[in-house]
Each structure stands twice: as C-alpha cells, then as structure tokens.
Amino acid sequence: MALAYFNGKIVGMDDPVIPIDERGHQFGDGVYEVIRFYQSKPFMMKEHLDRLYASAKAIKLEIGKDQAELEELMLELAAKSGLEDADLYMQATRGVAPRNHLFPKCPASISMTVKPARHLPAEVRSQGVKVVLLKDERWQNCYIKSLNLLPNILAKQEAFEQNCFEAVLVRDGFITEGSSTNTFIVKEGKIQTAPLSNHILAGITRLAVKEIAGELHLPFVEKSFTAEELYAADEVFLSSTSSEVLAITSADGRKIGGGRPGAVTKKLYENFQLKTK
After folding, report:
1. pTM of the full predicted structure?
2. May I ask which residue range the UniProt record assigns to the signal sequence (predicted)?
3. Can you give the residue range of the structural domain that contains 74?
C-alpha cells in the first residue's frame, strides 16, 4: 500500500500533515529525489542520495540527517509499504517558520511518499514517443533538483496539449534536456548527449546509460547538439527514473530514423533492465 512520512512519523497518504508555514509549501524552498525500487531493492540509492545532498548544499540547506540515516528511513518506509516495485519520492525543505524570505532558524522538514511504480504501457515501449521542441525558459541552475518546477510543468503541459509525451528544451540554439528527462541522439552508432553543466540535471538514469554504453563498448560522447542534429539522428531517446530508457520516434512532427525504436536504444533498454535485477 502507499505510505507517507513527515518529520518522524509514518502517516497515511490522506492524513493532513503539512503546516501552512512550511517553506516548501510557501516558497518551494527545498530539494527532492525520486528513487525506484525493483523487487524491493532501491536502484542506485547512493547516487540519488549524493545528488540530493549536493543539491541541498547548493541552496545552503542543512538536511539534519546524514546519508546513512536518511537511507535507513527510506528503506524502512519502503519495507512497511509492502510494495516490491515502487517509486519513493522524498523532499527536504528549510522547515516550518513564519513566512519570511530570509532563512529561518529551524530544523529542516523531511517528507516522503512510497507509491506503486508507474510503468509505461507496452505499446509505448514498442512504438516510441513523440516530443515537441520548446525554448528552455528555466533558471540558470538546473543542476539543482529544486522543488521549483513551474517552467518544467508549463513545458510538459504544452507537450501534452500537442499530443506529445515530452518537451525537449532548447537554450541558445542547443538541446539541453527534457522537462523531466535527459535527451540523447544516436548517429552512426555513437551515443551523444549534452555535457553536464548548470543547465543540465545530472540524471541518475543518464549515468546508468553511460555505464551501460561503456560495458557494451558503444561510443558515448558528451557534446552539445542542435535541433537539426536531433532531426537528422538515426535514433533519439530519453532517460529518467520513471521512463527508464525510452525511444523518441517523432520530434516536431518529423519522423526520427524509420519512425520506430532503433537497435541501440533497444539494446540500452534491455541492458538497463538487467542492471535493475
């Protein structure tokens, strides 16, 4: 069953627990992570926690627990849920205090939910997805996994309204990433994705893809690319915790490759599944 946690207590999903003056609620003043559990085992937990604490450091947030303590809490909540395949959402905020832009002197708030993992339909995997390219209107520090996601939400909604799965974002003429995913192209067997920078989230599945490419001896290049290069690619795919590795077969109404998931994308997805066992 789905379960939640707030500041030391395991609670039901519908229990009222967030105070009005909670800073995540009022300011979006916090950071978060989403970790998938496969057969009751967390996937790349250390990497997720490393990124969480790096994001917290970037916004000068003291979480108040070390990584081992937080991992123990996550594992306990996941175990009590009884879910084998689950998505654990965790956020840390600057706490509960009267509304004021300056940092308050109070402990951080930690909240979590564990819910059944959201699996994509088989036909989506077999057919691939459509995307639309949009201007990247987010702030300058996208490497921080911040609660402030309004530009991402607007981009995702625009994609949905255009009957697309994802919005792929363009900044200064180059693809950065999707609204909630990392983006890759494949040309002549070479995998290419934008290099990590302030404008890119260091995706955990992105890291897994890089590791798998190395194991399969597939060329992996971290280099910026344009919309024109994306349109002309042999294959395009995205990665994220919830989508894993997913083929993009249409961008702005243009077919990618043959309009079907390509061999490299399929191989990466198959090996990603092996990595989760």
Report:
1. 0.96
2. none
3. 3-116
Q: What b/e sequence results for 107-140 when a residue is b if at least 16 CB atoms lie within 10 Å of its CB, and e otherwise?
A: ebbbbbbbbebeeeeeeebeebbbbbbbebebee
Q: What is the pLDDT of residue 56?
A: 98
- Is the domain of 250 the same as that of 196? yes
Catalytic residues: 145
DSSP 147-191: S--HHHHHHHHHHHHTT-SEEEEEETTEEEEESSSEEEEEETTEE
Q: What is the pLDDT of residues 122-134, one digit of tens each?
A: 999 999 999 999 9
Helices (H) and strands (E) in the chain, counts: 8, 15
Cβ atoms 155, 64 nearer than 8 A: no
The pLDDT value given to residue 215: 98
Same domain, 90 and 216: no
